[in-house]
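Researcher: Good morning. I'm working through a list of sequences from a screen, and I'd like to move beyond sequence-only analysis. For each chain I'm collecting a predicted structure so we can compare shapes side by side. This is the next one on the list. No need for commentary yet; just the structure.
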Amino acid sequence: MEWTLYNLRNSSKFLTGLIHNHNFCGFTIQAVTLTFGTLFASILISSCASDFWDYETDQDRFESKLNSFSGQTEEQVVSQLGIPTNSYQTGNTKILTYFYDYGSTYSTTNNNWARNVCQHQYCPPVPYQERTVQNRWFCEVTYRFNADSMVQWSWRGNNCY
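Model: Good morning. Structure tokens for this chain:
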């Protein structure tokens, strides 16, 4: 469509009529505003809707997995988790402990390059420096069995879930 003076005049008449008559294609401006406002609000609310009240944290999922072992025999738990790190038995009670250590230790030297590059009489002495970095992430889970049925669990650590 080519914009001519006629088209501009007609479009300005349309806009003028829209503003003065408060009418848009046979609907009042209030009705159009209300319809679009309701549509926008419903889209906004539905897009924000979530299962907020059913929100389950990583810790909840981890403890739910631990709860799933309740009532199982020692053999069933060991077959799913593997050989425990430690075990203890007294009378009818048996305790299995699983310890997971994800720690790491490494050493850094931040000046080896300076010691090797500079090998003439004008180089200042560079002392050797080393630093040890330790990261420790672990998880210890303990299961208690009474009469060969898992009845209680506990956990501690900073990397269990």
